[in-house]
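User: For documentation purposes, I need each entry recorded in a consistent format: the amino acid sequence on its own, followed directly by the corresponding structure tokens. There are two entries in this batch. Please keep commentary to a minimum and don't merge the entries.

Assistant: Recorded as requested. Entry 1:
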Amino acid sequence: MRKALSQNFLIQSVPSCSGCSACLNSCPAHSIVMRENGGGFRYPHIDESSCIGCRKCIKVCPVFNGEMRGCSSTGADHEPAAYGGWNLDDEVRLASSSGGVFSALAMSVLEKGGAVYGASMEEELRVRHVRVDDAGQLFRLRGAKYRQSDIGTVYQSVRQDLKAGIPVLFSGVPCQIGGLLSFLGARHELLLTVDIICHGVPSDHLFEAYVKWQEANYGSRVRKVDFRNKNTGWKNYSLLLEFEEGRRYAAPFTRDPFMGGFLMDICLRPGCYACMFHKTPRQADITLGDFWGVQWVAPELDRDDGVSLVLEHSEKGREALRAAGGRLYLERVDFQKAIAQNPSYSHSANMPADYRKWAEGLERGPARRWMNRISRRWNPSFLMRLLRKVWRKWKAFIRTWKAKS
């Protein structure tokens, strides 16, 4: 009889766990649960009393095996086709983080009687992956959610749909695409995968501390969060909060402490600092992101209501873009120039030297003290802000120059 695995077996075996939940979905004994650790990240724990010792959890783990299962048809030395563009529906585009290309792809799948899976902000401001088969519910999957979504048993639901002959679009961060493909074991003719250019996932503790801080400031509970509101433009987007008693908070991302903590990389999941899912070739059929630097790469596409960068990795991705073409404006662009302003496409974030200090501080609280510290670091003096701006512009110029040369 096989010996049951210990409660922390997976955590000890995969210290750089991405939280993709492939292990949970693959367990035949339902012995695995995802629990939040002291840093605000979910990790798998095993119920020793029900574990049957089959080790399917470790066999399916894409991080442990270091195997990029189901890779796209492009080789490591083949550049994907790159496009800049947007959704032709103004309302959809404005409700999306960048250009609304995901919504066009999703509508094409739904019109075929398919199902779309993606991250949705649910009750209690929790982010979960959900299934949508009605165009009227597609709004739930639009927009950025700067939190790691809870996959739950969604991979099992995807498998059931595919077995039933239902076309599926699955969207997520790259490690979630890796988790799904590893769980399925192979690509499927009816499955279209779409990932995003991912900076990393921030600690739930940071977000919870931020919400507590804002609720104390406004004396009311937060009922809605829009991480990428475009009222101030796409390039200078704002974080918008709506409170139960009707008040609103909006601040450009350059002035908001939550966005500061996220963009300063002080609160990302440990595995995000050495992410294996940035590898080429990409596992997804299509990668979507913001077309940062479009004003230099393709000035004719520059607009401030959102421009998407679209990277096509496979024949299936090409067919999907063609099918959605009636809803999109797309223009071919140079791949190397396009990703020059998007280093997160191929590189992990750098772990700050004081990462441990911030992680322990967010764990122990109180929320106000740490939000104030982040605010001071993110919003320094005018002179320091000016120097940072000049430095960012200079780095952007150098990246673009290198891409052109």
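Entry 2:
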Amino acid sequence: MTTLIGPLDAAAIHREAQVLRTWQQEEPLNVALVYGGLSAEDRLYIAESPTEQMSVTALSESLIEIGATFKILDPCDPGFIRDLLTFDVALSNLHGPYGEDGRLQGLLDYLRKPFCGSGVAASAIAADKILCKQAMEGLGVPTTAWQTWRPGAAARWQGRPVMVKPALGGSSVGMSLVRDEAALTPALEHAWETDPSPVLVEQYVTGLPVTVGLLQLPGGVLAFPPLATEVHEGEFYDAASKLDADATGTVSVALADLPANVLEALTRHARTLWGGLGCRSAARIDFMVTDDRAVYALEVNTTPGMSRESNFVTGAALCGLSHTDVVRAFLHEALTRPAYDVPLPIPVLNASTSVRETAA
């Protein structure tokens, strides 16, 4: 069983941080920093976020501090796969379909390219909100009641508010809070247009949104202290609140002021999901804590946001870890993980190989 390091274990955290800070490769690392407008979520951030607030900016700064050489690779570039082969390790900041859902991870496995983050299975299950709901139930982690919808099916209104969510994608893109029956069908159609796969219809519960970050360190997995997210404008933590492009402070994040037994339950459920899904490197798990202190798991994010102000980075800082320490942890896990030993050739691509030829 993986050792769990608590956020108050300052001695263990300091020891792990020192291992990371003194860890050196024989040669300076050459890192493929993978980012581009592949998903609706990432296109939104590219279009609306100031450059200094973007995760890719913060990641670039930390790679420079580490002394790594790197290049931002856009997966929409026809030479993307060919270019990947020239790097030591891939660090992806892609979100949503093709970036966070196991497909990129499978490609990197096939190319024999070490990469930061969870593998194919954990990425695929966590990214699909419906599969993740099924996993939560199978693992005994409490989650809100839910159903699915496809075009042509009846929109079943059960007389209570619901959250309508596309199965894939994040940052609440395509998500709606529905309070009455008349608004249900338009919300379902909107979610389907965002992501043409089964739509998640989830019972809406009010309470305190809480997130728990988990980071794999050389000697164990560090659980960050649960953080409460308070939305000052809007009915829920929607895309506009998460983006906060004008830095107006529509959302605040602070240590969750909850009883010890609730904090323990949050960390325990987060650890169960980490182990049950087979996560590695990093994850951020979102919960809702109701007024009567019931805890419900909502989502598992295997590629947490890495901007300077993100929940994940804030949680790490409360444990004494800098943004650069977190990036070191990502790289250390990727490069010390045992490689697959299967008899597949490493593809040889050259400048004359087209994307269509590679696919064929």
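Summary note for entry 2:
Confidence is low (pLDDT under 50) at residues 241-248, 353-360.
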